[in-house]
Amino acid sequence: MPLLKGGAALQLRNFALNLTFLAVTRVTQSIDDTGVAAAAHAMAIQTFQIGGIVLLALSTVAQFVVPGDMVERVDAKTGEKTGGVLVARATMNRLMSWGFILGTILGFLQIVILPSLLKATPIEDVRVAARIPALLGSVYQCFNGLVFIGEGVMVGTGSFMQLSLSTVIATLGTLLALQQLPQKLGLTGVWMSFGVFNALRLAGVIVHQYVNGPLSKRMIARNSSSSAEDTPMPSTEIVSDEVSDNSISDTQEENDTVEKATIE
Fold it and tell me: CA-to-CA distance for 153 and 88, rounded, in angstroms?
């Protein structure tokens, strides 16, 4: 049953992602009849994938590393405890920091090599149309690292339904943006809609890590208090029985001492 629920949730997420990309493709192809916008969009996508592949790889790393650190382990030789939710949260924060740093570096690298990438086509109109979308795609890498790694953490912690709902909300926001922005800004509006998509996904990651996720401080504190309440306390009857037994033994020792003194 858990496998069925998790698989259904991830299928919902994949449906939302594919719907977003289909909507983007449809709007892009309807911008003009010359094919310039479609060619420029393809070039901007190639620029975006330079850093996107690396950041997606980090997302896969987060899916394996974080749940591994959530498991508490005891060293058989030293007796030292490792792992647990606090360790997993520290690992998550480290990965998120690396995601932001690498995303910023990769985005800067894309901006640096952007003039060379635009030379891939001899058509000047395509170069001009692709310049701003490719620049936006480079800037988006700064928080795409946070999005990809954060969603990897959500997969690793088993928060499949929350991840899917976050993606669905992002898809709805993108569809609304695609109805307005491309009509005013053309292909640039399409890529601004991409920004809306990833910004809403980032909001879902923030909610998961700081509000209701298993590695949020709030949930860690709640689970700690619950486990403390569930810890069994010593029975008062046992304590009273031990006290009475001790008092009886003390009384017997005193009586034995008195009898010995009387005989002497």
Answer: 10
